[in-house]
Amino acid sequence: PVYGLMGLWVSDRILLLAGALLCALPVMACSLAQSLGPIVFLYGVLFGLGVACEELVPFTVVSRHFVRYRGTAMGLLFVVTALSGFVSPLIVEALRQAFQFRTALLILGALELNMLFGCVFVDRVPRSDDSGPRAEGDGEAPWPPLPVGRTRASSFQTASLVNSYSKDLVASLTIPRLSARIRQPPEAEPLLDKREPTWRKLVANLRSMASAPFLHVAASRAVSVFVLSSFLLTAVDFGSDNGLAGYEAVSLVTASAVGDLVSRVGTGLILDSKVLSGDAFMLWTFAIQAAAMASMAFVKRYWVLLASCFCTGLTAGGRIFACTVMIAELFDERSLPLSLGVTNFIAGIVCLARPPLIGYARDIVGSYSPLYVSFAITSAVFTVTWTLSLCWRKYRQRMRRQPANGIAGAGSCLPQPRVQYGGDLRPLFEKGFKSEAKTFQAVTCSFSVSLLGISCVPLFT
């Protein structure tokens, strides 16, 4: 939440630069430490602050720059960083064998300084609320501000609306110069925004997070992180307790990791293509996870356990990713850092109960099966809550579509917009990614290189 609060007033570039320095300099300074105390402060506190920044701000930047293909962009970010997680331990081990301990730390810190290069290319995104700059025209009325909650298909709907009407109707309209407003870089904040008190801006953002949808998504993400991390810690022991050999027990974790990796790519495509809504996706993944955890608790066959582990990683990993996308859709750009930071904070607080719970199941109960049953029950409860949420959303959409009395059928006289696909989608898709490719590569570089520092943990043991 600290970086979320700072994100309300400090630019993303400054936060990324601070996080990069906090990741690189403490690792290099550890090479000069002569006792354990400085290492705990440098690596445990300062480096931890840097990693927290690099795990929050890149997702904020990607969420702001990508609207229509936000899920796909975040999925690619997850995949690249996951692949770097496989490479980072190999680099650390190679440096440990080739150099001395202090020299290896200096080299790793120097490698992490490469994050500064990626931070330079992070651009600002034009504001979508009423605080954005207005176009300068020759006595023309300013273009109306975009809504705070930007829809994912806003650009396509605008294009389809223009193409659907006749040329005479379009020619008869006086359209203000929208390009002047969009292309103008918002380097200077408007005076009214500068005069807004700090406490009022903070209260407005905190009030937006007191809503039921945000609390529902945050609780679902916390439960997903808790279940997945607890399962990864207990899967090997659970397999050994049920008669699996060493390789077979480890393969349970591998199956879960493969499912998690697959979900990073598939979830973004599902959400962007609108195959399932966010509520429906959460409903089905919680239901599948409840069935998978119950199967592991009562069925001890190897292939059933392997398939259940894959489904657990697929659903839990997909929900963690989907919650990030849903949070980005619930809030405007200014409150996005704080909302993502609070969701991470809630998940961290919930995970504090993981060690005593696992210890109780292992030492007192003597089996992990009751723990998995409790996970299945929790998933079933959230299946019910997301079912209610989906029904409520469908009901509200149906009420909005009902025409008012006396106006029914009045809109039939107007030409209806046609949603045109085919040749128009590919240029817009390529344009959307090409225009933001520099920013995406920058945040991916910063996030993936920060994993080198996390891989330094074996050097201190």
UniProtKB/TrEMBL annotation:
<keyword id="KW-0813">Transport</keyword>
<dbReference type="InterPro" id="IPR052983">
    <property type="entry name" value="MFS_Riboflavin_Transporter"/>
</dbReference>
<feature type="domain" description="Major facilitator superfamily (MFS) profile">
    <location>
        <begin position="1"/>
        <end position="397"/>
    </location>
</feature>
<feature type="transmembrane region" description="Helical">
    <location>
        <begin position="275"/>
        <end position="296"/>
    </location>
</feature>
<feature type="transmembrane region" description="Helical">
    <location>
        <begin position="39"/>
        <end position="61"/>
    </location>
</feature>
<protein>
    <recommendedName>
        <fullName>Major facilitator superfamily (MFS) profile domain-containing protein</fullName>
    </recommendedName>
</protein>
<feature type="transmembrane region" description="Helical">
    <location>
        <begin position="104"/>
        <end position="122"/>
    </location>
</feature>
<dbReference type="InterPro" id="IPR036259">
    <property type="entry name" value="MFS_trans_sf"/>
</dbReference>
<dbReference type="Pfam" id="PF07690">
    <property type="entry name" value="MFS_1"/>
</dbReference>
<dbReference type="GO" id="GO:0016020">
    <property type="term" value="C:membrane"/>
</dbReference>
<dbReference type="InterPro" id="IPR020846">
    <property type="entry name" value="MFS_dom"/>
</dbReference>
<dbReference type="InterPro" id="IPR011701">
    <property type="entry name" value="MFS"/>
</dbReference>
<feature type="transmembrane region" description="Helical">
    <location>
        <begin position="73"/>
        <end position="92"/>
    </location>
</feature>
<feature type="transmembrane region" description="Helical">
    <location>
        <begin position="371"/>
        <end position="392"/>
    </location>
</feature>
<feature type="transmembrane region" description="Helical">
    <location>
        <begin position="302"/>
        <end position="328"/>
    </location>
</feature>
<keyword id="KW-0812">Transmembrane</keyword>
<dbReference type="GO" id="GO:0022857">
    <property type="term" value="F:transmembrane transporter activity"/>
</dbReference>
<keyword id="KW-0472">Membrane</keyword>
<keyword id="KW-1133">Transmembrane helix</keyword>
<feature type="transmembrane region" description="Helical">
    <location>
        <begin position="210"/>
        <end position="232"/>
    </location>
</feature>
